[in-house]
Design a protein that fits this description.
The protein is an alpha/beta fold. The protein has a single domain, classed as Rossmann fold, CATH 3.40.50. 33% of the residues lie in helices and 19% in strands. Strands 2-1-3-4 form a four-stranded parallel beta sheet, with helices on one face. α1 links the parallel β1 and β2. α1 crosses α3 and α2 packs across α3. The chain is globular, with a radius of gyration of 14 Å.
């Protein structure tokens, strides 16, 4: 049976979406990833582009409210907000706090924003590989 992992950030627009996509693409044989936000917004198109660059398609994802997962048992909740400011989820057996920079704060030209998103994507995918690549 696959372990169920819920990634949470504020808007469920980039960080948690990239983490969900990476976990499912790379370790979907052992894990089922989900994502949600405490104040969901819209899927970040830069995150979609950055993930497509590494062969992971998250274009069909949508931002979801954390409340959509009420009562659904998870093996782990991963709060990817900086400073661990995301809500506690009582149905998770394990809670992990690993903050990543907020992509919504990136400014500059299109290429500068993409460069920032790529750095965040690479941090997230590296952490996913280290944390979930070995049996957990």
């Amino acid at each position: 049976m696959k372990k169920r992992v819920l990634f949470v950030c504020t808007h469920n627009s980039a960080r948690s979406q990239m983490a969900e996509g990476c976990l499912n693409a790379r370790y979907g044989d052992r894990y089922q990833g989900f994502s949600a936000g405490t104040r969901p917004g819209r899927l970040n198109p830069y995150a979609v582009r950055a993930m497509a660059e590494i062969g992971i398609d998250i274009s069909g994802h949508r931002a979801k409210d954390l409340g959509e997962f009420d009562g659904r048992e998870m093996d782990a909740l991963v709060a990817v907000c900086e400073g661990g400011v995301c809500s506690i989820f009582p149905w998770a057996k394990d809670e992990i706090h690993r903050g990543f920079p907020d992509p919504s704060r990136l400014t500059g030209t299109d290429e500068e924003i993409m460069a920032g998103i790529r750095r965040i994507r690479d941090e997230i995918t590296s952490w996913i590989d280290t944390t979930f690549g070995a049996s957990r």
